[in-house]
């Protein structure tokens, strides 16, 4: 290992190498602190050429590589195992925006660019880069693409996968594939970009990407709406899509229990409506046109929803800052739940038409198995994506509840499978769900994935133990 | 071969098998009549199970399969070779819409559904299926997906690739992969859908798909605009995107020569503006809102474009029927050019920022090499996609001009490559560009494609001689 480290040091210099135990720890620990790995070192290259040279050394010496960006993933996909033999390849120093081509509506960026910086750079060029998610202040675009990140703007703009025109990838052989084409149409063979997006670093290392930019929204309307049930929320979604079409940018659901946790743990937070209701929808319309039209549309859409008894009450934000307050309620749910104590998280997706039935069925099944259990249900309803989280019954010790993790997961994930859903909507598999997925994917689909893996990474050095 | 045909007949029955020479001919001939193959037979299964059984027989007997839909492809991708040993697998009888889930905004359809029928079925459910292209009355969705079709709505809704949530595919082994999930988010491993989309039937046979549906547009504004040059058209594109954002649905360019060919060969056609100009843009705005707002917006956008001297004149359609007349001018270009005589077609894409320079450079280079040559330049400018076609100089016999095909292609495609473009934007490679692409793709990229092909089709029975 010493020889390996010396070879790598000659590639990246002392500034690009971390080897001391205490310095390694943050890189070796995942965001939720569920996994702590033991890497041989962390290498931080600053150019694609350095990445390629490192991978060649690893291929030659059969050292496993764990690609890492902002290390904000929720499934342990960027955390090495405990063997002490895996190398973390952290892309954070590759953080240049290589080009913004505003007429082509594209930007070419390196993997280590922090997402929020890309949003800002796009805005400076009077464009929108729409990917937006909780970790945007520290997650990096290479990780976003490797996990096909979702977030709050998928309803309008799609997942990370749909925001990419081209990639640069260092392959497991150490060769560099330059697919940095800024083309909206290119039908010249298999779409290799799509293979690497969402592969969680198991097929190669994404080092740069050409991203799509969009016209900047210049007006917005944000509302919190009270609904009687998830079923009513879904009827509202249909109503809003019909009334507002392409303007509907976000459609988020959260339950009264979610709101109560936020209000309990954050003194500054205030309930959005004078009374409390069973469920809430946070929705947002946006438009490239400036002016009041989008607000007027939101008002009329909500008025007719009230008339049709789809909703019980609604508050339309009167200012950007009130819109921010509404969004904060939604964004603080995860943290509030963490303050409340350990809980069991699920990131699931379902056909939108089956969500209501899924929630009712799964709530009932969990309540039967674990009386008093508390569901913290929220998520990107417009995308069919629920964060169906579960907190212990009041008074039950966290420890004893967390011992039921596998049993709770089994109930939730089996229900997801029965409803034609996915057990990982936007977070990926990583190491957290790598075994779990085998229960839900057909052997044939797993076999196809294994063949793709073997075709691209025959030595098996790219992020082993993840995904497949 | 007789034994093979008998085995296949027992699978599909007599109604599913074509073996007589005259009946085989239309299936064996491509749309542009450039390729005429000699198939052993045409088999027309009516269920996925029949497809699977046919493929198993072929895998066992090493018979090559040429999947075929509406047979409207422009690159010979669905035409067998002349060996007499390849089997055409025509999906036209698999034409059921299995489900429309309007709340999930999806429809599950079989490969043989004609595109226009799917558009209508979506409209009947008050939804939009946006894929739209010249051949929509006879092309089939399986072919559209296998070639990742483009068309006139890509600017707003994306290519076929972006309209798919899930696939059902019969693999080269005869096993059936059921990936028919109607999920907007699903991060559980490699995205196999994307591998089969655009693979032109070389990795498996797409038998069904879950397609995305969108809110129905309820107002529209269509205009033909005169511009001085492609550069001005591009400036108008930027202006229109800024002013109209998500409402810009189509942005098509055509030159005066294109218009003159349409007027010459179609008596009913009329010039859209009182005078004639160098280039025209056909643009369309659409909105899910009914009413006049989108027309008013189009008027103000065009007025400010006139003021900024981006455009010279504009005609905004006063009715749906006038909009249809404008579209017809654009749609008749290919046919008008065919009436004019043989020509050399190119389906290229470029970064939008480089299109103007590309046209100027390539026009000049072709004029130097072939004095008097006439460029028929039109296409989906909003997507960076040009149909950069070339007609012989006036008075030059078609035959002698067509002998220059390779030299003309070389000039055009080399210029595309220098500008960072693609030599097949929306038509695919098929057999037409299978060899040509080797000049423009890196050996590494070709090697990756070959590895994917070998991993999924180790026997090489799926549409050999196409793509790779």
Discrete helix count of chain A: 16
What's the shape of chain A?
globular
Question: Quick check: average pLDDT of chain A?
Answer: 97
Work out the strand percent of chain A. 15-25%
Radius of gyration of chain A over all CA atoms, rounded: 23 Å
Question: Using CB atoms under 8 Å apart, which protein chain pair has the greatest interface?
Answer: A-B, 91 and 91 residues
From the structure provided, what is the oligomeric state, counting identical versus distinct chains? homodimer
Largest sheet of chain A: 7 strands, antiparallel
Say how many strands of chain A there are.
18
The CA-CA distance between the termini of chain A, in Å, is: 27 Å
The residue fraction in helices of chain A comes out at 25-40%
**Low-pLDDT residue spans of chain A:** none
Class from secondary-structure proportions of chain A: alpha+beta
